[in-house]
Every structure is written in C-alpha cells, then in structure tokens.
Design brief:
Blueprint (H helix, E strand, L loop, with lengths): L1 E6 L5 H12 L3 E3 H10 L3 H12 L5 H12 L8 E4 L5 H13 L4 E8 L2 H9 L1 E4 L7 E3 L18 E2 L6 H15 L1 H9 L2 E5 L8 H13 L1
Parallel strand pairs: 1-3, 1-4, 2-3, 4-8
Antiparallel strand pairs: 5-6, 5-7
Helix pairs in contact: 1-9, 2-3, 4-5, 6-7
This protein binds adenosine monophosphate.
Adenosine monophosphate binds next to helix 2 and helix 3.
C-alpha cells in the first residue's frame, strides 16, 4: 500500500506517518530525513542540499526525484511505503505517478493535514525529535512533552531540535509550501484519492486522533 502525506510543515505529517507505519506495518520514507542524514554524514548529497534546507527552500526537483526513486527501488519497500514530505511539487507528483505506473503500483490515499498558520509556527518552535536514528520519536514541549526533560520516553536518547525549526526559517518554509506545494492538493483531488483532515487545538483534534481512525479504515 502506498500512502502519501501532504500538508504544511508542522501539521504533524511525521507524527501521523509514524503512527500509521506502526499500525499498518509499512515503512516510512521521509525526504527531509534523507537530506538531514546526508548533511550530518557530510556526503556529496548533503553538501549539495544543505543551503536549501537552511533557507527553508525546496531542493531542486531533478535531485530530489532521483534521491527518492533510488530509495523507492530498495527491496524493503516492495510491499508499500508511507511517503512523508514527498512529493512537494507538481513535477514530483507527476514523476511519482509515472514511476509507480512502471512498477504496476498506484497511490492508495493522499492524506492532507490542515492547521491554521499561527498554530504551525508555535508547534514547530516547540518541536523536539529523538536523536536516535532508529527511533526519531517526535515530541512537542507544550502539547506532548517527554516525561523526563530532554530525553526520549521510548529509548532514553537525547532530544534535539532541527536547525530549520525556528521562526524565521519556518516563515520561509510556509511561504514555499503555499506557493509550490499546495497546488498538488488539487492534483490528488482530481484523482479522487485525497483525504483532508483538519488538525488543530481549536477543534481539539490532533494527529494521533487522525492516525487512529485512518489505521482502522485502511486495515479493512
Ligand atoms: P521536512 O523534514 O519534510 O520538513 O523537509 C525539510 C527540508 O528538506 C525542506 O524544507 C526542503 O528544504 C527539503 N525537502 C524535503 N522534502 C523535499 C521535497 N520533496 N522536495 C524538495 N525539497 C524537499
């Protein structure tokens, strides 16, 4: 089963993807995680993409598409994948369809999370992530704090903050999202596979609620 996660940064795509992955037994691939790991490991890819991430801009399509197609060809994804953060442009969405078509596969559902802009900034500046690459559990210092400050509840590793999770870069990331990524929502709506969910404190609905319902629906 192929699931894609859509939505602005901070809507909780990573959290929902992680819960769906556990509930459905399908691996998650996050384009942002691939780029951050490459930057951390000082690989050629990391050096090429670092500036884009630090400014909150999208990595160019040709490079991103190649990185994701290489990853999608790996045998661990033969039975499905949850794509978190990909596609983000119309070009990426079209190329993904073609790539999957070539493998006789198609996207089951495109989950689109919507949250008011002011809430997104607040969420992102309070986001902390487990530094253990096998765990990567996501916390929020206000909404979902760890039991022990600075440490992951699940594995005890230190929590870290992403460099681009600050207000200035986040504003750029949001502008980029509304300009370059939002148009692909219509692309999936036209295909009849779009599932939009509002996630907001103001309606007391969080990513965990959405994930629970979707697991039940997709298991059937
Ligand atoms: P994320 O972890 O999904 O918030 O992504 C972090 C950063 O990685 C983004 O701000 C972009 O610079 C880059 N990135 C992630 N996914 C993509 C993509 N599909 N296309 C282009 N750039 C991306």
């Amino acid at each position: 089963m192929i699931i894609i996660m859509l939505g602005a940064p901070g809507t909780g795509k990573g959290t929902v993807a992680g819960l769906l992955s556990e509930g459905l037994g399908i691996p998650t691939v996050s384009s942002g995680d691939i780029f951050r790991k490459a930057i951390q490991d000082r690989t050629e890819l990391g050096i090429q993409v670092e500036g884009y991430l630090s400014r909150g801009e999208l990595v160019p399509d040709d490079l991103t598409i190649k990185v994701i197609e290489d990853r999608l060809n790996k045998p661990d994804l033969a039975n499905g994948v949850i794509l978190d953060g990909y596609p983000r442009t119309t070009m990426q969405a079209e190329k993904l369809d073609k790539f999957l078509e070539g493998q006789g596969k198609k996207i089951e559902i495109a989950i689109n999370l919507e949250t008011p802009r002011e809430e997104l900034i607040e969420r992102v500046v309070n986001r902390r992530i487990c530094s253990n690459s096998e765990c990567k559990t996501i916390y929020n210092l206000k909404l979902n704090p760890p039991k022990q400050a600075g440490l992951c509840d699940k594995c005890g590793s230190e929590l870290t903050q992403r460099k681009d999770d600050n207000e200035e870069v986040m504003n750029n990331r949001l502008d980029t999202y509304f300009k370059q990524t939002q148009p692909i929502i219509e692309f999936y709506e036209k295909k009849g596979i779009l599932h939009t969910e509002k996630v907001s404190l103001s309606i007391n609905r969080m990513g965990t609620d959405v994930a629970k319902e979707l697991i039940e629906r997709l298991k059937k």
